[in-house]
Design goal:
Shape: globular
CATH topology of the largest domain: Dihydrodipicolinate Reductase, domain 2
Radius of gyration: 24 Å
Helix content: 25-40%
Number of domains: 2
Strand content: 25-35%
CATH class of the largest domain: Alpha Beta
Bound molecules: nicotinamide-adenine-dinucleotide
Strand order of the largest sheet: 14-13-12-11-7-10-9-8-15
Structural class: alpha/beta
Length: 382
């Protein structure tokens, strides 16, 4: 939570009149000071202000700072949140005893140093995807967090959307049956990032979703990726990523910064049902199709019948589950607060961040080798 009192750096006490507005001001001040977890957001670029907004809407947090190397940007990012201070000094944030946690929304290459310093200063951390720029860095942070007993949570935002939560439940309940394939497409006219390619920018979303929804026995065993830079941007702007799972199932992810149309579709085919998630279609983000292909057991058919009847098409109903419209970042903040106050690992803990990193790292190596299949050892994060 934050105070949005115009003209005051922090809530002021001592109202002279006890009218209705004075009472609500006092209640506002009280809840400001009683909000238990002091938070600082680091990075006021594209994403940081979203964390500021979500933190300010979360009663469990008292946002203390927005920090950016560019002080003017931090000041702009605070907009109307007048109880929050802007700074360019991360050291000042970490030295503040009122800060119990930091949320890091800076470029991936900076995550390791910033998160390590926060953990060493005794602060809980929410870090943006990807956890770090390398697996080795991620592992060091995991070790530090374990040793310190502090929460290290990855902002795998999509895992907190009602659609992905429902997909996870549908798979876990057996309603979909055994998973046969996954096909995920995330393309739009995206910002060509200065520090990461499209794999490291967009694929963490799809890979963290896969990590979140797949049942425990279905783990990635190998990865292959093809990438291209047709505009000469100096880094891959589109990528096709194949992930083989332990049961032999193939998952495929397409990411692309160069598409004039925005597509956000994931299809998860199962033996009983197929889930189609279209995030660009709010009235029917999720559709559950009782449609698919069944193979009849060959031995039940006479030899001359086999060719035609082995494949049978199911064309049943399509259902559209009603989903609550809750902003994912509010759930991210609630989960961070819950993990800190209850002393438990968050839903998207450092292990999830490491598993995504292992896939990204293998995908990059595969792309460098022209799409070679790279076997994975998924000890990371397990
Ligand atoms: N969860 C999501 O859906 C989502 C969406 C977009 C971006 N992100 C992630 O958020 C992070 C930031 O992305 P962005 O698009 O906002 O980047 P950005 O370049 O727009 O902003 C980064 C900001 O961090 C500041 N910064 C850099 N180093 C710093 C330091 N040491 N201390 C303080 N400030 C520093 C920069 O000055 C800049 O203002 C990335 O990890 C990105 O992957 C996540």
């Amino acid at each position: 939570m934050c105070s949005a009192v115009v003209g005051a750096a922090r809530p002021e006490t001592g109202s002279s009149r006890w009218g209705r507005s004075a009472v609500s001001a006092v209640i506002g001040e009280l809840s400001y000071w009683m909000s238990p977890i002091g938070l600082a957001v680091i990075g006021a670029g594209y994403w940081g202000p979203n964390l500021v907004r979500a933190a300010c809407a979360t009663p469990e947090f008292r946002l203390e700072w927005l920090c950016d190397l560019d002080l003017a940007r931090a000041q702009e990012g605070l907009d109307r949140y007048t109880s929050v201070r802007a700074t360019a000094s991360y050291e000042q944030v970490l030295a503040d005893p009122a800060v119990a946690a930091v949320a890091v929304a800076t470029p991936a290459a900076t995550h390791f140093d910033l998160v390590r310093a926060a953990l060493e200063a005794g602060k809980h951390v929410l870090v943006e995807k990807p956890l770090t720029a390398t697996v080795a860095e991620g592992e060091k942070l995991a070790w530090l967090a374990r040793r310190s007993g502090l929460v290290l949570m990855c902002d795998h935002t999509y895992c907190y959307t009602p659609a992905v939560r429902r997909i996870r439940d549908l798979i876990a309940s057996g309603e979909i049956g055994d998973i046969q394939f996954v096909d995920s497409v995330r393309v739009n006219l995206g910002l060509v990032q200065p520090d990461v390619d499209v794999l490291w920018d967009l694929a963490p979303h799809d890979l963290s979703i896969l990590d979140f929804v797949l049942p425990g026995h279905l783990t990635p065993v190998a990865v292959a990726a093809h990438t291209a830079d047709p505009v000469g941007a100096g880094r891959a702007c589109l990528a096709y990523l194949s992930v083989w799972l332990s049961t032999g199932v193939l998952a495929h992810v397409t990411v692309n910064w160069l598409s004039p149309t925005k597509i956000r579709t994931t299809v998860i085919g199962g033996t009983r049902r197929t889930i189609v998630w279209d995030d660009m279609n709010p009235p029917a983000r999720l559709m559950i199709h009782d449609r698919g292909v069944d193979m009849l057991p060959a031995q039940s058919l006479a030899p001359d019948e086999r060719r035609e009847t082995l494949v049978s098409y199911r064309t049943g109903d399509i259902s559209v589950p009603a989903l609550p419209e809750r902003e994912a970042l509010l759930s991210v903040m609630a989960e961070l607060a819950g993990a800190i106050t209850e002393g438990r690992p968050p839903l998207t803990d450092v292990g999830a961040g490491l598993r995504v990193l292992a896939l990204l790292d293998a995908a990059s190596r595969s792309a460098e080798q022209g799409g070679a299949r790279i076997p994975l050892s998924m000890e990371a994060g397990t």
